[in-house]
Amino acid sequence: MPWIQLRINTTNDLAEQISEQLEESGAVSVTFQDTYDTPVFEPLPGETKLWGNTDVVGLYDAQIDVDELKAILHLDQYSHKIEQLEDKDWEREWMDNFHPMQFGKRLWICPSWRDIPDPNAVNVMLDPGLAFGTGTHPTTALCLTWLDGLDLNNKIVIDYGCGSGILAIAALKLGAMRVIGIDIDPQAIQASLDNAERNNVSEKIELYLAKDLPDNLQADVVVANILAGPLKDLAPQISKLVKTDGKLGLSGILANQSQSVCKAYQAQFELDPVIEQEEWCRITGKKK
Predict the structure, then answer these.
(1) Domain 3-87, what fold?
(2) Cβ distance 228 to 281 under 8 Å?
(3) Which of 27, 72, 158, 228 is most exposed, with minimal Cβ within 10 Å?
(4) Residue spans in the chain of domains classed CATH 3.30.70.120
(5) Where, residue-wise, is CATH 3.40.50.150 in the chain?
(6) Residue 140 and residue 77: Cα distance in Å, rounded?
(7) How many whole angstroms from its chain centre is CA 163?
(8) Which residue in 97, 130, 146, 108 sits closest to 280, CA to CA?
């Protein structure tokens, strides 16, 4: 069916209020988009972080009375644009955008509706979700490539900030003996469990909310793909999780933030040269 899209340009102070007004006026979905394509990073728990110049975009059934909508929302006071979206199979359009992706030499991330390119490769089946990593972001790609280059046979791996479980599941498929996934979000724990079951590795994965982490937990390899701020704040806790001579991989870091993150870990780790991809980077090292 066709749709009417309403785009209102506003500020971050008014975006939430306008979003509520759009929902009350019958919008079937409301999203926020950055007017000037400035990157927005993952908010802290309970925080909604919006851009300084924000477009609030509402999607309506095409049968809606546009003149009535304008009156209800008092659109004359905003810079806005109303347009009709072509009628197409949006689910098919969405599915067509995702393809199997290779990371390193052995590892592939494959949507369930696509054919596996190489049955003899290490294949992780993972469908794109609403909130968690699928491998398309450079930070996830950097971590997957790093894991592919390690010898994980008989190793214990911790995925700190596991999200969808993509890194944890990849580690298991790459030979890890046991993987522990940790996150602050119960939805992430459930998503990781669901994806582990889909990949037939659920018996080898343990999942914990960060507040419930067992004492004295350590691993041969720890990977944390979160954000620069939390990585620095959590440096003492994350460092303790790595065994002596163990490996550490950090991402979710902008290239211009790498120096400050390295500084938080350099006392306990022999750090490798920072690897960059697009505007993001990966920091790796060995526990002293």
Answers:
(1) Alpha-Beta Plaits (3.30.70)
(2) no
(3) 72
(4) 3-87
(5) 97-287
(6) 42
(7) 7
(8) 146
Nearest residue to 252 via CA among 141, 150, 152: 141
- Selected from 3.30.1510.10, 3.40.50.150, 3.20.20.70, 3.60.15.10, the CATH number assigned to the domain covering 97-287 reads 3.40.50.150
Residue pair 37/52 in contact by the 8 Å Cβ criterion: no
Per-residue pLDDT tens for 162-206?
A: 988 999 999 999 999 999 999 998 888 998 999 999 999 999 999
User: In three state form, how does the secondary structure of 95-158 look?
Assistant: HHCCCCEEECCCEEEECCCCCCCCCCCEEEECCCCCCCCCCCCHHHHHHHHHHHCCCCCCCEEE
pLDDT values of the chain reduced to their tens digit, one per residue, 288 residues? 578 899 999 888 888 899 999 999 999 888 887 765 554 444 545 555 555 578 898 888 888 899 999 999 999 888 899 988 866 665 565 566 678 889 999 999 888 788 888 999 999 988 765 444 555 688 999 999 999 999 999 999 999 999 889 999 999 999 999 999 999 988 889 989 999 999 999 999 999 999 999 999 999 999 999 989 999 999 999 999 999 999 999 999 999 999 999 999 999 999 999 999 988 999 999 999
d(CA 180, CA 64): 50
9, two tokens: 């340009």
Question: Nearest-CA neighbor of 106 among 40, 74, 151?
Answer: 151
92: CB partners within 8 A, 6+ apart: none
Q: What are the φ/ψ torsions at residue 199 (nearest 5 degrees)?
A: -100, 10
CA distance linking residue 268 with residue 192, whole number of Å: 30
Q: What is the pTM of this model?
A: 0.69
